[in-house]
Write a structure and sequence with these properties.
The protein has 17 helices and six strands. Residues about 165-175 and about 260-285 have low confidence and may be disordered. The protein has about 375 residues and is mainly alpha-helical. The chain starts with 14 loop residues before the first helix and ends in a 16-residue tail after the last helix.
């Protein structure tokens, strides 16, 4: 993680406070809200396609992960902050950001075991962090910028609350698109949870969490679609039915009816084009991306949960029950579950057709497909 986790909805231990903090951002990242942003996502996809078209024309070899991460970051930043980092337009920024995310990934196991580490790092002077770790310093600079932005929003929010009928504030509210800062500050959270530092941490975590995991899954999609015989041709045939030209952008509702797709993906590798946009509701149907989420496992760490006051009973196959006392941390390994041969036959091979079986068979597979976790603590951005 890149922030003080206990200050975030993601890392909040207390169940009541967690529900409050999660609710403040849940509506903002809902499917309905994200769908209003589809045209903006398509515009960043066009920039990604421009880069891929260039490599297709020149025959140059390139590393897909850098571009997928840049696309995902620019798209998420535009959604969260109404601005873009311009990573797809700047090679130096693109490389710097990839190195920064790699540094964050490397630090995550350390932060998980020593939660005091990040609060300490956030207090290190920028000049010193630049000497110790330039990559990490870029994260701190971003956090500092977001904290400054949160202060500005908090000032506007406080002023609007005091002068709710003022023309200036009314005009500001009506002319401004909702973003993550406004979503949190306009929520029912207590004022202590609307302080700039915590808001900045929440937005930064949404940014990193929404981009790094997307990049990881996208890489697997492209690799497996191309390396598994028959998948690319079938996927392309499915898309040709709703995309008459490479630049056609069907509405999500149209794409949701394409059984083999299960995601907004347009693959025309002969022209170097790859367009992607996901939907969890769509994943409930079947195929390519569902299988990609299973085999990619964007999150490999265990996410322990604790029932603070109730004893849990877990039924075993033989009819007996495990008794899990209140206060006992319980977790599962998502990657082990997704690769269990007793659930998924031939689990290490990419087989989208497994999701096209009989309803009873699909129901069993879906029961154990948990790429976003499960329960009240599952990923808030699942849709």
């Amino acid at each position: 993680m890149v922030t003080e986790t206990t200050a975030l909805a993601f890392g909040t231990v207390d169940h009541y406070i967690h529900r409050q903090r999660r609710a403040a951002v849940k509506t903002f990242v809902s499917k309905k809200t994200v769908q209003t942003f589809q045209s903006s996502i398509c515009s960043t996809v066009e920039l990604l396609c421009r880069e891929f078209n260039h490599f297709a024309a020149t025959g140059e070899t390139f590393e897909c992960g850098t571009y997928f991460l840049s696309w995902a970051t620019d798209s998420v930043a535009k959604y969260l902050e109404n601005s873009t980092y311009g990573l797809l337009d700047d090679a130096r920024r693109r490389q710097d950001w990839q190195e920064t995310i790699a540094q964050v990934v490397e630090l995550t196991p350390l932060v998980k075991q020593f939660p005091f580490f990040m609060p300490f790092v956030l207090k290190v002077p920028g000049w010193l962090m630049q000497i110790l770790s330039p990559k990490m310093n870029r994260v701190l600079l971003m956090h500092k910028r977001m904290r400054s932005t949160a202060r500005q929003y908090l000032s506007l929010h406080t002023s609007a609350a005091k002068q709710a009928t003022g023309a200036e504030n009314s005009n500001h509210a009506s002319n401004s698109k909702i973003d993550a800062y406004r979503a949190i500050l306009s929520s029912t959270l207590p004022e202590i949870d609307k302080q700039p530092d915590r808001v900045a941490q929440e937005v930064l975590t949404l940014l990193v969490g929404g981009s790094a995991t997307t990049m990881r899954v996208m890489l697997r999609v492209v690799y497996h679609v191309n390396s598994t015989p028959g998948v690319l041709s079938r996927l392309t045939k499915t898309l040709d039915a709703v995309m008459t030209t490479p630049t056609t952008n069907p509405e999500l509702e149209v794409l949701e009816k394409q059984e083999y797709l299960a995601m907004y993906i347009s693959v025309h590798l002969s022209r170097g084009i790859l367009q992607l946009m996901g939907s969890w509701d769509y994943l409930k149907q079947v195929a390519v991306v569902k299988e990609s989420l299973r085999i990619a496992t964007a999150l490999t760490a265990r996410l322990p949960l604790v029932s603070p006051s109730k004893t849990l009973l877990y039924a075993k196959d033989d009819g007996t029950e495990w008794v899990i006392p209140a206060g006992t941390p319980t977790s599962m390994s998502i990657s082990r579950l997704h690769m269990d041969p007793d659930i998924y036959v031939d689990p290490y091979n990419f087989r989208p057709d497994r999701w096209l079986g009989k309803p009873a068979q699909r129901a069993l597979l879906e029961k154990y497909l948990v790429p976003f976790g499960r329960g009240a603590r599952m990923c808030v951005g699942q849709k």
